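ok here's Metallophosphoesterase:
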Amino acid sequence: MSNLKKTFVIAQFSDCHLFADKQAKHFGADVWQNLTRVLADIAQRDSIDCVVFTGDLTQDHTEVSYQHFVQAIKQAKLSVPVHFLAGNHDDRELLTKYLKGPDFDTNNTINHDFWQIQLLDSKSDTPSGLVNQQCLQALPAQMDEHKYQLLMMHHHPVNVGYYIDKHGLLEQDIFWKNIVRLNKAKINIKAIACGHVHRATHLTQFNVEVYTCPATSVQFGDTKENLGSILPSYRLFYLANNGAISSDIISL
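and the structure:
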């Protein structure tokens, strides 16, 4: 047991909103430069064990924007492959087409000595999210009851108190009933981490921690007219072998 790593470190980055034109800006932010700065910062941190991108790769929905994302990942020369899931702006087929090879990991379950991370697909036919019943019903078979669980998804499963809530997760009551049921059945879901909201928040629902990730592109204010920041940011998680979670926000 002494040889096992006591803390599992995850870098979560999200919502880069790339365009086919690398010079194009999103709410005034140079999204291509912001993404490459975040990836460069992640790459120089030796402690990181896992990297997860939680969606909204593209803003203009072009295939070229996906190619740019792959280029940015290759340029960064990360020490571990990138796990990923779809955001509401993303096309699952294009993610599958371009995000492949040694720089990416397509597994939806990430295993560690003491933890498992489950990547949930919350993309729907609208900007709002939905984790379908089939996905929820499949979760128990994927989960090791002897390990702590972190769920990661694009959409936020709790309201965060500003306009992005109108595009949050649909059927939240059904989602949380399943989470509560799993925890009562000896599955230890400690936390849920998501993107989409373009801001770092930390909430608690049914004794489960909920963390939202700041964006690499731009941080949102309380209204669309009141922009938060164009500083690129991401989140680090430290998952301890006793189930404790701590987190840092890195803004560049």
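+1. The chain has one domain: 8-251.
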